[in-house]
Amino acid sequence: MKFEYNKICKNLLKGLPQRTSNIIERRFGLKTGQRETLEAIGANYGITRERVRQIIREGFSKISSRAKEYQKIFKYFGDTIKSLGDVNREDSLLFVLGGEKARNQVFFLLNLDKEFKRFSEDDDFHSFWSKKDESADAAKKVVAVALNKFESGKKPLTIDEVYESHKDEIEKVLNKKINKNILCSYLEISKKIQKNPEDQFGLKNWLEINPRGIKDKAYLVLKRQGKPLHFTQIAENITRLPFSAKKKAHLATVHNELIKDPRFVLVGRGLYALKDWGYEPGVVKDIIYNVIKNANRAVSKEEILERVSKQRFVKANTILLNLQDKSCFLRDEEGKYRINSVKEA
What is the DSSP letter of 122? Predict the structure, then answer.
């Protein structure tokens, strides 16, 4: 539904004292698109922030009778908020109602009608609007259930998956039915829960939801691929991630991050794997050492080749060459290898 919000706001401000009209326009960004603080406006007029607030209240009281002419708009606002469970995150609501150009006009009009209540941003929630305190409380209860589920499940979920997995528990807490649109609206007011570009919800600090920098994106690439990749392949895949800007990831930057971050293990010439997969850090000689030490016995050449090959993508000759270092490894009469006791000491 389209309304001429700019024209409506101008009509509502007509007849107000010039200073009152200017202060309201500046406070709500009706002309410039930038909302100004009470302090900034007060400093400009040489009055206190509380006096600015008082002037706005006085202006609103004069406008309120005229605002009744626009009940169609306020009904539209109310129906939209109601369709989302009587709770909607402010930035989303302003965009839905007014698009990019009329966000401030919609914000001004919402503040005019006492039927709508604004809940200010705090440490846990974004600013949001509701028509009922009970609805706001219900949304916060749903967020608490979802947070608990995400923390225990440790897996991003689409809204369909959240709904199917946790609907019964959420409805038990609310003592009423809930649909997916309302559930989505409730989750979006949380600061601790976030939706990624692939429309998956999860905890904000998860790299699957909000990866920070090249190293997190590299980790995400490997985790999704499920196998070691050459650093050039990792760089290419980072560029394809929906989190990434369209510009190409620099190979040198990617390689440097892989080298520095202990989550990644170099397992071959330019090939990197995740330490989470059981790959051990170190060069080939270190891997041989660990194979023999963990076996706690002399180990055959064949067994060493098999076990090291699971850790490193190198030729057999490379393993055998390292095995010939007598300062580290000794071969017994049966042709099996053990750690040089001098090296072990």
Answer: -
State the CB neighbour count (10 A cutoff) for residue 298: 17
Q: How far apart are the first and last CA of the chain?
A: 80
What global pTM score does this model have? 0.78
Mind listing the pLDDT tens digit for each residue in 183-201?
A: 999 999 999 999 999 999 9
Closest CA to 218 of 282, 263, 152, 168: 263
SS (H, E, C) 269-322: CCEEEEHHHCCCCCCHHHHHHHHHHHHCCCECHHHHHHHHHHHCECCHHHHHHH
**What is the Cα–Cα distance from 272 to 256, expressed in whole angstroms?**
12
Give 131's Cβ-side CA count (13 Å radius). Answer: 14
Determine the pLDDT at residue 1.
65
Q: Nearest-5° angle of CA 152, CA 156, CA 159?
A: 110
- How distant, in Å, are the alpha carbons of 63, 64, 66, 109 from that of 71? 14, 11, 10, 11
Residue owning tokens 């608490």: 144
